[in-house]
């Protein structure tokens, strides 16, 4: 069921404490941790504690939690002292999504080219 933890979801297991992660921030609704395969000097994932497969489904079902993910992305950037940074939501395999749990990538610490990818 949407919003409920999924047994086969890596990020649900991290939220539950079953898989370790380097946590940098946590709130009642979100968890932020360092990406294990960083694409920039700072690469932190911000996830909702509830399970939705992508940001669009999270935003539709629980817009306040989607807003929390965005707010926490900014807090991560501030704590990491990033003057410039990018927040990315990959949606679908063609866009590079590999974990089907909504999440934001906070990237910074180097120049980021445009367009990406």
Automatic annotation (TrEMBL):
A Pfam family hit: HIT
Occurrences of domain HIT (ranges): 10-117
Organism: Streptomyces spongiae
Record GO terms (molecular function): catalytic activity
TM region positions: none
PANTHER family registered for this protein in UniProt: HISTIDINE TRIAD HIT PROTEIN
Motif mapping: Histidine triad motif: 101-105
Active site: 103 (tele-amp-histidine intermediate)
Protein's recorded name: Histidine triad nucleotide-binding protein
């Amino acid at each position: 069921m949407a919003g409920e933890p999924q047994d086969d979801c890596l990020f649900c297991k991290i939220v539950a404490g079953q898989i370790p992660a380097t946590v940098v921030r946590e709130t009642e609704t979100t968890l932020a941790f360092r990406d294990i395969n960083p694409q920039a000097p700072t690469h932190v994932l911000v996830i909702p504690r509830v399970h939705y497969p992508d940001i669009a489904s999270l935003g539709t079902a629980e817009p306040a939690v989607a807003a929390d993910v965005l707010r926490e992305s900014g807090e991560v950037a501030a704590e990491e002292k990033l003057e410039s940074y990018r927040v990315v939501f990959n949606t679908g395999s063609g866009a590079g999504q590999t974990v089907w749990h909504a999440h934001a990538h906070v990237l910074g610490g180097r120049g980021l080219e445009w367009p990406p990818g």
